[in-house]
Amino acid sequence: MKISVDYDLCESNALCMEIAPEVFEVRDDNFLYVLDESPAQAVWPQVEDALRACPKGAISIED
Ligand code: SF4
Fold this sequence. Notes:
Layout: E1 2-5, H1 15-19, E2 24-26, E3 32-34, H2 44-53, E4 59-62
Antiparallel strand pairs: 1-4, 2-3
Bound molecules: iron/sulfur cluster.
């Protein structure tokens, strides 16, 4: 499984970073970076929480 972000929707509010900092990072340039598109299994619950928390619906998970 792979994490996908629609950067056109993302508003860089860093909510996903607060929930899953191993995976999502909003940097000083105010852009979101996905640090690991296919993280370890232990991190996936956080990724799913981040997906649900994103107010823009910008995060998706691809098979
Ligand atoms: S929670 Fe959504 S809108 Fe906010 S930075 Fe993450 S992907 Fe972007």
